[in-house]
Amino acid sequence: MEESHIRRVGAAAVGCALVLRLVGGGVPGRLAEELVQPDAAAFLVYLETGRNVRFSPSEPGFTPEFAESPPAEAAVEVLADFSEAAEIPLYNPSGETPDWEALLEAPLDLPLHAAQPTVLILHTHATESYEGVPGWRTEDENRNMLAIGARVAELLEGQGIPTVQLRTLHDHPSYNGSYVRARESIREALDRWPDIRLVLDLHRDASDGANGQMRTQAQVGGRDSAQLMLVMGSNHENYQQNLSLALKLHAQLEHQAPGIMRPLQLRPSRFNQDLSPGALLIEVGAAGNTQQEALTAAEQLAQAIAALAG
């Protein structure tokens, strides 16, 4: 048996014994709570097995409901010819009539592999959440959009794409003014990291109907997934640069996971996309989706970005 494995097994035995004594003995306090959280559980599994695993942030460890999250899918190949995706479904109340085919055929320039951060992730409406959260909003970073953005950032970093996630709750304590506050955050980030080429504003959609909150549905590798939707603004002079990238990302995502995309929207708004030619607003599922369904969709988003990266 390798020495490193012996050390891991020994440390795991000590850690597990400590957890059992604290939990089984009824010891109160933050220490016992922290030891059964997903990060601590994952660390103990690593000590025992040497495997790096992920657990759902919505459930504590060492409970009957606790389960390992499914692994991220393998990297996918980039779509060879974006012109084949000219039939992308669209919702366009903007009044603009861009040359959609020309935007798809325009050269893709997305150099994301660098020494400094090239991707910025933020959340204008960070407290948005999913099924099971009262009011579908929460400041709990394990259950709101920060958890979704963190998963995308983790996967991009794993592909050698340096990524920064802003963890500011721009919609708290007031929902009004969220985009103004997010705008300042984006400007500060772009000044600090001038190599940023992709700005992702991750949201989740909501539509309250007779049957409750909307749930978007797709299948990815036999797993339930939320759908994704790109929402682009046209109320600035450089919107077509953003739109060209959005169309290609939409095409790539639909190519690698058919059915995962909702119609792309082009609206007469700005969404702070005038600050960068690589700015995208992406709805990750809706309030009726589970967080795990949203995380599955987020994994596909990260894979598609990595596939398109130069």
Provide key terms for this protein.
single chain, 310 residues, alpha/beta, seven-stranded mixed sheet
What would your notes on this structure say?
With 310 residues, the chain is of the alpha/beta class. The chain is built from eight helices and eleven strands. The chain has helices spanning 3-24, 30-35, 38-49, 100-105, 145-158, 178-192, 239-256, 291-308; strands at 90-91, 119-122, 163-165, 198-205, 208-209, 212-213, 218-220, 223-225, 228-233, 264-267, 279-286. The strands form three sheets. Strands 1-10-9-11-4-2-3 form a seven-stranded mixed sheet, sandwiched between helices. Strand 7 and strand 8 form a beta hairpin. Helix 5 runs parallel beside helix 8 (291-308). The radius of gyration is 21 Å and the shape is globular. It starts with a helix and ends with a helix. Residues 48-59 and 61-74 have low confidence and may be disordered.
Task: Give a short summary of the structure.
36% of the residues lie in helices and 15% in strands. With 310 residues, it is of the alpha/beta class.
Topology:
Layout: H1 3-24, H2 30-35, H3 38-49, E1 90-91, H4 100-105, E2 119-122, H5 145-158, E3 163-165, H6 178-192, E4 198-205, E5 208-209, E6 212-213, E7 218-220, E8 223-225, E9 228-233, H7 239-256, E10 264-267, E11 279-286, H8 291-308
Parallel strand pairs: 1-10, 2-3, 2-4, 4-11, 9-10
Antiparallel strand pairs: 5-6, 7-8, 9-11
Helix pairs in contact: 1-3, 5-8, 7-8
